[in-house]
Design brief:
The chain has 227 residues and is of the alpha+beta class. Helix content is 26%, strand content 24%. The strands form 2 sheets. The protein has a 9-stranded mixed β-sheet with strand order 5-4-3-11-7-8-9-10-6. The chain has a two-stranded antiparallel ribbon with strand order 1-2. Strand 4 and strand 5 form a beta hairpin.
């Protein structure tokens, strides 16, 4: 293990900027990585990648299917790595609009913080609300959008995505070790690659077709996989 690889934690959803972790975070991460490293090596090797992954990451999350797909990007494009079952996800189909609605957000996000001290074993924070969420809230005079949306361990969820402890260990280490930029997270009500995104004008909120078209366009960059 190269210690320098542990020191840069993606923190910005707008650029590939990074920050140096605190001494306490570094110590926690050092303890996490050794017992997960061999599992991550095996996952990457099965997909034909070396460790650490010389690429950026994307996570595709589908609410209806309760699946999180991991994709790696390099100069040759996007490559499917592995699917993980989502063990806990509160709410229903539709975006998050306010604090306390228990909804998992839907949209195009990034991982902005890796938390080795989470109450849910480990956690990775999404940049909700993003620019789209804030703009639509402003147009509708909505406030108190909520926040602190994480992909984390355990099996319970209050607006977050619970993956179980073993899965979050692998996802956390892959995100930490990825070669460039913050990991992308695409959250959809279901897999728009398999059936078209709903677009009828009576959808509420009224901007939902716009959001779903954005998600569908981004998902088109990822070939359909077998669950």
């Amino acid at each position: 293990m190269v210690l320098s690889l542990l020191l840069a934690v993606p923190m910005s959803g707008k650029a590939a900027s990074q920050t140096t972790v605190s001494a306490a975070e570094e110590e926690s991460i050092i303890h996490i990585v050794p017992h997960v490293e061999e599992r991550v090596r095996a996952v990457l090797a099965q997909g034909g990648f070396a460790y650490p992954p010389p690429a950026s990451l994307s996570f595709l999350v589908f609410k209806e299917e309760r699946i999180l797909e991991v994709w790696l990007h390099n100069e040759k494009g996007a490559h499917f790595l592995k699917s993980y079952p989502v063990l806990g996800m509160s709410g229903y189909a539709g975006p998050k609009q306010r604090q306390g609605d228990l909804q998992v957000p839907e949209g195009l996000y990034h991982i902005v913080w890796l938390n080795p001290h989470s109450d849910f074993h480990l956690s990775m924070k999404l940049d909700y609300p993003n620019e789209f969420d804030r703009r639509k809230a402003e147009e509708e005079n909505r406030s108190h959008l909520g926040g602190d949306i994480f992909i984390h361990g355990g099996t319970s969820s209050v607006g977050c995505i619970a993956m179980g402890d073993a899965a979050i260990e692998e996802l956390f280490v892959m995100t930490l070790m990825a070669g460039s930029g913050p990991a992308e997270v695409i959250v959809a009500p279901y897999d728009f690659r398999r059936q078209p995104a709903p677009s009828h004008p009576e959808l509420l909120p009224r901007w939902l077709p716009e959001l779903y078209q954005q998600i569908a366009t981004r998902l088109a960059a990822y070939p359909m996989t077998e669950y």
